[in-house]
Amino acid sequence: MTVEEKKKFSWDNTVMAALYIVVFALTIMSSLPWLWLMSIDAHWFSTMYSWYTFASTFVAGIALITLYVVFLKNNGLLPAVNKEHLHDLGKFMFAFSIFWTYLWFSQFMLIWYSNQPEETIYFVNRIGNSARQSPYSGIFWFMLVINFVGPILIFMSRDSKRNYTIVTFVSILILFGHWLDFYQMVFPAISPDKVPSIAFDMGIALFFVGLIMLLVARTLSKYPLTVENHPFAKESVIHHT
Fold first, then answer.
1. Which of 8, 114, 126, 197 has the greatest number of CB atoms lying within 10 Å of its CB?
2. Do 86 and 162 meet the contact criterion of CB atoms below 8 Å apart?
């Protein structure tokens, strides 16, 4: 492929990515959380719910990308990737963990402050109140520690975001933490008095993890991972943070 063809290919990909962002914003970020998740709590509503689920999905996506980058780098398939790129991925996970926590606290604080029964029922089922204990309170607070306290404390320093082992650990922690977040979004509404066995749902999650790994590995094996004649290739190689 010639340089001009590569430039056109890159431009077409950029346009398609911009269009996909719009589609993603109108589906994953807004409509689908309302239809799939918030409708489970039929008498509850929150205007921040879509932002909250979007932030959770986004930071989990960055964590998954990081795991792929580390794995491919360790297998010699991304020679141009260095600690500068890893540092950027760490900063994204750090920043969007804070953004997710900001949305979590805003939703929680506003509902707690207004104390309206049609809103507080959501948190009564998850953390309980003076009249009722919730079996999900431990999961609820544990999820907050994993998704906020863990990434903030570990990624506070610059060196930790440039360490492959630490970044890998935090990426796995974030993925598990946000899976647990979605778990507590669903089950307190359909089984408020008893926590179902988490093993079955964890098995389903691991099945999809394996399926994603299989499909991505097959796709990566068909194409070169280092793009030639890309208009921004040089900037990526000499990237410095």
1. 126
2. yes
Residue pair 140/127 in contact (Cβ under 8 Å)? The answer is yes
Token code pair at residue 214 = 């299989």
Structure tokens at 76: 């010699």
Angle (nearest 5°) at CA 235 between 15 and 14: 5
State phi, psi for 40 to the nearest 5 degrees. Answer: -65, -40
Q: How far is CA 184 from CA 63, 100, 159, 212, in A?
A: 20, 16, 33, 23
d(CA 162, CA 100): 22
How many CB atoms lie under 10 A from the CB of residue 104?
19
The residue among 26, 85, 22, 39 whose CA lies nearest residue 185 is 39
Rounded to a whole number of angstroms, the CA Rg of the chain reads: 21
pTM score, whole prediction: 0.85
pLDDT in tens, 107-164: 999 888 888 888 888 898 888 887 778 899 999 999 999 999 999 999 999 899 999 9
The tokens for 127 are 């953390």
Contacts (Cβ under 8 Å, ≥6 apart) of 217: none
Q: Where are the domains of the chain?
A: 3-237
